[in-house]
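Write out this protein's structure.
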Amino acid sequence: MSDLSAFSLDGKRVLVTGANTGIGQGIAVSIAKAGGEVVAVGRSSMGETEAKIGALGGKIIAHRCDLGDHAAVKTLIRDVWEKIGPLDGLVNNAGIIRRADSVNLADADWDEVIDLNLKTSFLLCQAFGRQAMAEGRRGRIVNIASLLSFQGGIRVASYTASKHGLLGITRILANEWAGAGVNVNAIAPGYIESNNTEALRADGGRSTAILARIPANRWGDPDDIGGAAVFLLAEASSYVHGATIPVDGGWLAR
């Protein structure tokens, strides 16, 4: 295997949740550029992502699923496996954020964030790992964590809890599944231009303060996360297990 082929996803099929926009779209496009086939999952239209990948001559299949419906989530991997074909990778990207002072955070906002960001991600990991190991297939899981997997943040208690939890899930599943040929790792994006950071970017004071701390002196682009995801899905990372890689322009190093 040449050095370059170790970073190729030719012949690989990867399911990406929340691939309709932002980081998920950046990851999906990067997978296609590396030669992989994308199964884009979510409840919103994947039209824009399909157009971007189609323009590259890449392969994408959109599959509708309400990722907040845990009954549907539990059968998603099996359904895709049977209808589309075996999966080589899973990227748990779909997530939401709710902002409020912790003293005012509503129960519903806590539950909704934890259910999607943490429980849905675990259920998909569980189903993917079960299917891959039952068939003796190697597999790759990439969870999209956050800088708030390491830090506390402000006014995002449920989001911070969910991303701390996702880091822990990444580690325990790596401990249990590495020997069976299933790599489980995560990426911790920094401040990326996406829907989740729209409120921060619109706040002149916060945006200026954030940029002042980022050594790269810019907000990240979804493609920045896509490159890291391709590495973790490719053979080049075959001995990487249980890692959470910050892609943050140097934020945590500051």
